[in-house]
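FW: tagging you since you asked about this chain on Friday. Here's the raw sequence from the shared folder, copied in full. Didn't touch anything.
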Amino acid sequence: MKNIVILISGRGSNMEAIVEACARERWPAKVAAVVSNKADAGGLRFAADRGIATAVLDHKGFASREDFDAELAKVIDGFEPDLVVLAGFMRILTAGFVRHYEGRLLNIHPSLLPSFAGLHTHRRAIDEGCKVAGATVHFVTPELDHGPIVAQAVVPVLPTDTEQDLSARVLVQEHQIYPRAVRWFVEGLLSVDAQGRVTHTGGQAQAVLAPSSDA
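HL: got it, structure written out here
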């Protein structure tokens, strides 16, 4: 039984999707804890209501990013994680923290990486005239929004889309591919080669193409 620790800063809708999939599909794992840097994060109540341990560590109480990350790692390690999952955790992590969890730290980003790393991904995709957008699950490396890609979902960008429209369409797919990628990890079905390319050892498709009717 593997332990998963999930980090959030707000509602944590991807956290919710992972928790529910883990229970419904009976993974060989459990969500051992949900940790937030904000005491008012809505996802903490969701976790507590399901008997999942929660912890809060306010980054504002630390003099440096390094100090915060060092203490955060202590909190996380108290739950003996096999996997740490970033689910809307709105902090840029230090290289030391990332290396501590190398190979067992996952993130989801709302773009088709390596395109549109950083913020305002949906607005940028629309402004650039992209015809498709999407989301990417990847292993975290010290370079922001980079790292070996585990899974991607592709959605259409419609001519009438607002930033909110596209965000909502992508989020639907995030809730599909993130739990799937986490399950693959805990079941030991992911392989990373020397070039950083991730494959599913059972040959399952690692890309989802959402039909236009999902728009």
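FW: The chain has a mean pLDDT of 96.
HL: agreed, and The beta strands are 2-8, 29-36, 53-56, 83-86, 105-109, 132-139, 149-156, 190-192, 198-200, 207-209.
FW: great, closing this out.
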